[in-house]
């Protein structure tokens, strides 16, 4: 579980967030649409922390752009 405040990351949760972003980037290289669906919250689903979503939203479009080139 990722904390709602990025400053409260422990060593374990920090490693988890880095690994999750890495896996999402790999997935985006395969299918950007599926990667976006992975982080898009379903109704009544637990939301990912805002700071994590900002980092993902910032990184995925750049990956898609690199893939097109």
Brief synopsis:
The protein is an all-alpha fold and 69 residues long. It has helices spanning 11-30, 32-39, 50-68. Helices cover 68% and strands 0% of the residues.
Helix count?
3
Give the radius of gyration. Answer: 13 Å
Low-pLDDT runs of 5+ residues are none
Number of strands: 0
- In N-to-C order, the SSE pattern is HHH
How would you name the oligomeric state of the polypeptide chains in this document?
Answer: single chain
**N→C terminal distance:** 35 Å
Q: Estimate the helix proportion, in percent.
A: 55-70%
Determine the strand fraction and express it as a percent band: under 5%
Biggest sheet record: none
Q: Which class best fits the helix and strand makeup?
A: mainly alpha
Shape, principal axes of CA atoms: globular
- Kindly state the mean pLDDT as a whole number? 81
């Amino acid at each position: 579980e990722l904390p709602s405040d990025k400053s409260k990351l422990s060593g374990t949760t920090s490693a988890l967030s880095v690994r999750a972003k890495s896996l999402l980037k790999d997935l985006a290289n395969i299918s950007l649409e599926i990667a976006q669906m992975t982080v898009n919250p379903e109704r009544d689903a637990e939301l990912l922390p805002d700071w994590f979503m900002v980092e993902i939203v910032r990184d995925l479009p750049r990956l898609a752009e690199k893939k097109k080139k």
